[in-house]
Structure formats: C-alpha cells, structure tokens
Amino acid sequence: ACLAKVDMRQVAKPYIEELRRETGETVHLAVIMDSSMVYIDKSESEHVLGMKSRVGASVPLHCTGLGKALCAFLPEDFVLARLQRAGMTKFTSNTITDVDDFLACLARIRECGYAFEDEEHEEGIRCVAVPVMDHAGRAVAAVSASGPTVRVSRERLHEMIPLVAETGRKISAALGLRALLAQGRRAAL
Fold this sequence. Notes:
By secondary structure, the protein is of the alpha+beta class. Helices cover 44% and strands 22% of the residues. It has helices spanning 8-23, 65-71, 76-86, 99-112, 154-188, and strands spanning 26-33, 36-43, 58-60, 115-118, 125-133, 139-148. The chain has a 6-stranded antiparallel sheet with strand order 3-2-1-6-5-4. Strand 1 (26-33) and strand 2 (36-43) form a beta hairpin. Helix 1 (8-23) packs antiparallel against helix 5 (154-188). The longest helix is centred in the last third of the chain and has 35 residues, at 154-188.
C-alpha cells in the first residue's frame, strides 16, 4: 500500500532523461493496465526521425520490448490470462503469435534480464527493455530505449543493453528507497 503512494513517474524521470541523453534515443516507462502496456512517461529523442508514441497510449504485451520485459518476471498464469483476453495479433512478419514461442522467449529474457523488440510491433523500430522492480522485488513496470532501425542496428541494440539495464536498476532502487522511507515515516507517526 505504501508503494502505491509513490509517484513512479516522478521517481523515474531523472533516470529516463539520463538514458535518453546517453543513448540519443526515445525512452519509455510503461506499466501493465488491463491486457496491454501503457506508456506512463516518455523522453523523446532529439533526432528528426523518431517514434510516434505518446504518454497514455497502450501497446501490446506480446510484441513490444516493454511488454516482454515485464511479462518475463510476472506469474505465468497472470500473463496467459492477459494474452488470452487481448489475443496475439500479428503486426509485422517478426511478431510472435504462438503462446509456446512467447513463453520460450520469456524464459530467455528471465535468463539474461532484458528483452529486445526487433520490428515486432512496428516496421523500422527496435528497442531494448528491462523490468523495473518494487521494494519487494516484484516487477511493476518496464523501461526501454527505442529508435529507428537506420540508427539502431542490432549491434547498437546490444551496446545499449548495459545503459538500459543500469537505468532499470536505478529506478528500482529509487522506488525501493522511497517506499522504505515512507514506511519509516508511517512507523514514526
């Protein structure tokens, strides 16, 4: 209950701005709402060629780096229920539309700690994403760096992994610290 009072956007803002500066690409912070991911914050790339996304927009779980990064660290029955409700629409030739293939992808993400999106939701867009954890180690959000394939080659995607992973760790630590401080204040009352 204490963590619910934490404004995740406020806590994450300096870290997503820093990641945008480091990568030069668009950075998103998203959470699951119903059966999709919803962007709760965005730091836009300064390049002319970018992404058409907006805070408040929802995107699928099964074919976005954000969705896959978060789903990999959530209970399988929770994820399967949302996939069943939303379906697994094919957006591009790279979209995963088979549940077993998706679950195998999530297992690989759990092993390495990050997810890629390689033109799975939109042609010409790649991203790397990681989960954001709360003070109890539960996945509560995901953060990503995304850009057009003309700038974000597969090699560059791999180069961005440590930056995105560090941002996920920093946001997770800041959320945990904020929750612990709030608990301490409540205990002192």
